[in-house]
Automatic annotation (TrEMBL):
Lineage, broadest ranks: Eukaryota, Fungi, Dikarya, Basidiomycota, Agaricomycotina
Superkingdom classification of source: Eukaryota
Domain Heterokaryon incompatibility per the UniProt entry, residue ranges: 1-96
Record-linked InterPro entries: HET
One Pfam family recorded for the sequence: HET
Protein name, as recorded: HET-domain-containing protein
Record organism: Dendrothele bispora (strain CBS 962.96)
Length: 290
């Protein structure tokens, strides 16, 4: 299977859209009219061109209305990308023929928390602009990606294992990245840090990071002290708490982003992926028959 990496926008195709349409034979016109449908169509074409059977897309392979499904998929997300045949990174703000938008590293995709694992985990990543023109591959742009992100070339090439790198270094790769929900600053690191953690969007960001820190201290006791310590994780938790207190986050929809000027080297179980054939097979119904 291929897997799509993208930043969410208005009019995404949802699990409900496909689930309610699967027995109708033809895709509902209201789904085709959604802005998010086009990237699924093009990603399907790319998958079919490579003789792949399925495409996985988070917007509609995860039931966002079911908290249990969301939590299960968050814990398995790293494995989904790692076990894919290829990842298509759709950079909706890049244009191959516009010089000012050609450089992929200035894309919003490189600033988001969740896309860090989507860059690291797959065997290969192919970048596409907003019109689905290819912009190169991770393996072909390793040097510039490494220089920009601080991720060693050996990790990007697959010669070194992400989970053999120190916790501090893995966390440092996420320092400038942002998430829409503050708790996701912690949850997007679950797979990268290789720790078991149950997402809980009813908790505040303080609790999310403290639980992540505890999970890391249990798995990496030589690196992390749960109660105290001058390690990078302790500094990160302190920074997060100070930031939340200062700006007074009051709901889960506020954008939370660490300020790298305040803290320069912060932020930062690989379960078996269980893909739903029923949901994945619906994607190919979107494609034209010829």
């Amino acid at each position: 299977y291929a897997i799509l990496s993208h930043t969410w926008g208005p009019g995404e195709v949802t699990f409900r859209d496909l689930d309610s349409n699967q027995h109708k034979g033809n895709v509902n016109a209201s789904i085709i009219a959604k802005p998010g449908c086009q990237k699924i169509q093009y990603a399907c074409w790319e998958a079919r061109r490579r003789n792949l059977d399925y495409l996985w897309v988070d917007t509609c392979c995860i039931n966002q209305e079911d908290n249990g499904d969301v939590h299960r998929n968050i814990k398995s997300m790293y494995a989904f990308y790692q076990n894919s045949s290829i990842c298509y990174a759709y950079l909706s703000d890049r244009d191959r023929y516009n010089l000012s938008e050609f450089l992929i590293l200035t894309s919003r995709w490189f600033s988001r928390g969740w896309t860090l694992q989507e860059l690291l985990a797959p065997p290969e990543v192919v970048f596409f602009d907003r019109n689905w023109y290819p912009l190169g591959t991770r393996s072909g742009r390793i040097s510039e990606i490494s220089d920009e992100t601080g991720i060693p070339e050996g990790i990007l090439e697959g010669r070194s294992c992400v989970h053999q790198v120190s916790v501090e270094e893995r966390m440092s790769w996420a320092v400038t990245r942002k998430t829409s929900r503050p708790q996701d600053q912690a949850y997007c690191l679950i797979g990268i840090l290789g720790v078991p953690l149950e997402p809980n969007y009813d908790e505040d960001v303080n609790s999310a990071f403290l639980r992540l820190r505890k999970a890391c201290s249990e798995k990496y006791p030589d690196e992390i002290s749960y109660k105290h310590g001058g390690d990078l994780f302790s500094l990160l938790v302190g920074h997060v708490l100070n930031h939340v207190t200062r700006i007074g986050l009051s709901n889960h929809n506020d954008t939370y982003a660490m300020d790298p000027a305040e803290f320069t080297r912060t932020e930062p179980e690989n379960p078996e992926a269980e893909l739903s054939d029923k949901v994945l097979s619906d994607f190919l119904n979107i494609l034209p028959s010829n």
